[in-house]
Amino acid sequence: MTTTTDIAIVEAEAPERRRGWLDVVLDFCRRRPLGAIGAAIVVLMILVALTAPMIAPYDPLAIDFAAMLAPPGADHWLGTDAYGRDVLSRIIYGSQTALIVGFGAAFVGSTAGAVLGVGSAYFGGRVDLIVQRFMDIFISFPLIILALAMVAILGNTLPNLIIAMTAPMVPRCALVIRSSALSVREMPYVDAARAAGFSHARIILRHMLPNVMAPYLIMLTSFLGQAILLEASLSFLGLGVQEPTAAWGLMLRGAAVEFAETAPWMALFPGLAISLAVFAFNLFGDSLRDALDPKLRTG
Amino acid sequence: MVTRRRTWLAGILSAAACVLIVATGNALAQEKPRYGGELVFPVPSEPPSYDAHREQTFGVIHPVAPHYNGLLRFDPTDPTGTKPAPDLAESWTVSSDGLVYTFKLRQGVKFHDGNEMTSKDVKASYDKIIFPPEGVVSDRKGQYGVVKAVEAPDPYTVVFRLKWPTVSFLGSLASPWNWIYRADILAKDPHWYETHINGTGPFLFVEHVKGSHWVGKRNPDYWDKGKPYLDGYRALFIKSSAAQVAAVRGERAHIQFRGFTPADRDTLKAALGDKITVAEAPWDCLLMVVPNQQKKPFGDKRVRRALTLALDRYAGSKALSRIAIVKEVAGVQVPGTPYATPPDELAKLAGYGKDINAARDEARKLLKEAGAEGLSFTFTNRGVPMPYEPVAVWLIDQWRQIGVTVKQEVVEAAAYYTTLKKGEFDVAMDFQCGYTVEPDLDLYKFTSRSKNPSNYGFYEDPVLDDLYEKQSRATDVEARKKFVRAFEKRLLDEEAHYLMTLQWHRIIPHSSKVKGWQITPSHYLNNMLDTVWLTDGPTH
Alpha-carbon torsion B480, B481, B484, B485, what sign? Predict the structure, then answer.
């Protein structure tokens, strides 16, 4: 009897087991299956990009005039383009371009926007006013127009492309993060940090920025899809990456347009890849927002 | 075996091309023209001004040429577009020393304002082209350096005095850009023709609505009695190639005089069948690769030779002609024209041989000798998709096969020539397009940089300059051919200053109703429309 009581006391006093990352993932999958599907596609895309040299059946740059405009078949599962290059291999390698540019632009854009947004909220007053008016000017340009202007000014190398795509993302992220940071600024721990004499940079980077991570992550994932689409749009317009680099947007232009009626696979499959990637990032981003936003949190 | 097959194939294709050209010429001569109707054609570019003396674009020639005549023209029935023929001049004589050209003008020719055209007008027009007054732009002034003076001894005689004899002079006078303007108007305002029309041509000006269309109507007082056959014409300014194709496909336009792509041709033929006639010809336009010799290692001719040896031009021609407006393998002259290199001789030049494996072995060896193994560079290309992009993709693949890694940088079309002029590139795509195939016009570009600012290789080559002068002054055709061949060998083989890619190929799928128009290697020629007629009435 005594033994039983002791055990009961021990069980009652044991601390709640900390949730591991696997539990978090499983919980996310169970509560948000669509988001889980999106995340699975994103992971698959990353894996494809990382293992491209191992899984691509052909060299994506190798021209094969004997196989020009070949329809999908046993040799070329998704057909070939106007130069006889394997469409599947170019889509596989194209995922590298999409992810490098997408992650690069989305990460730099969101991070710069977050720092600006938090800084603007923290300092307030005239600094906030000036920063926000600049953001208003930038945000008044449509995403694609600003990116086009930047590419035209800087030139269309890969780093410049990332910078050009970053520019329109910064103000959008800064505005969202600022609104969250305004409430964080009023928190007692920020006042405490100020009273302790910490520097502005330390307060912004160590105390405020981690507390706006939820909107930051949401903006990051939503920008990823937008960045992939923007890169494809710029490449389609001839202002993105250049031939013979494998890139999805690039695969949609030139001969793909000319031969749209006779060789539709040239445009169809890269178009599907773009759609799938954007769809996956958006699904994942939406679910992440739902999971991280306390107002939308269910269960 | 592959070599033999290619030789046979080339022979069959050449024979077929000859048959096609002759057949087209004969058909043109045999059919009886009908009167009436309005010819409708899209023009992918719009005239910056109306004055052809100062402009360079077909956007001026296509809509505006039907209002004018030249002193001479190229025979509109000649498929090579190289035979000078009378226009406002009805005959001419050349002095025994080749220094004096005397032209007899037609009498009774009137400008559209009713004034008679005389030698005074021809002299004033050529003085504007050759010796433009201060503040007047003449784009082709440099082509007439040989002219000492233009004289008008009587109202119907014009005399050109030359500094040295040249066999290309008549061709220069047949230029489609040298429209004859009224002397009195030029005397009052040399810029008047930039914004007004007053010629002697087969069609009168009706209206120009910017961004929309240009309309001309039949000149009832045209000096060539019985012509023109059309009631009028309407040029539609349409930049989008898809919209141009759609206009022809929907039978809202008869023809586009510049050219369509192979895919457009196939689409139109599939959609319209016999309602479409396809005219094709080599195009006097060429994409060339120019290594910047100011930059290492492109000053080393072994590296340049390696780059040209890597190109399998014959396989490239066969494949790229399916997707781009390029086709013929050529040297410095369009195949089938008087000074073109015979295929056997062409095959002796670096990069034109039939054994591509041997050529690429030699290329690798040359790179090794030059210490440029594993060479990598940026290839600067012009931001015009067709045919720049497909040719660049092909070039990069060819160079990859000798171990050279190339990254393409595309520069927006308007900024492109600034990049070339400043020499801010490693290797670039360059371009030349002419109104007629004539060595004087075509080879000048390759002379030394100090003589010629459009030499983007930044090289000096006195031997090449000397050969240019010799061919230009040779009065005997066979002797001139030898100099042209020697020039070509030095340019493309010994020094490999430039690398020729493939000749452009002009494809004009047009309504079968259009008759009396002959395709030539130049999209600047045969746009006067005086010989063109339609088999039925107007389209709308």
Answer: negative
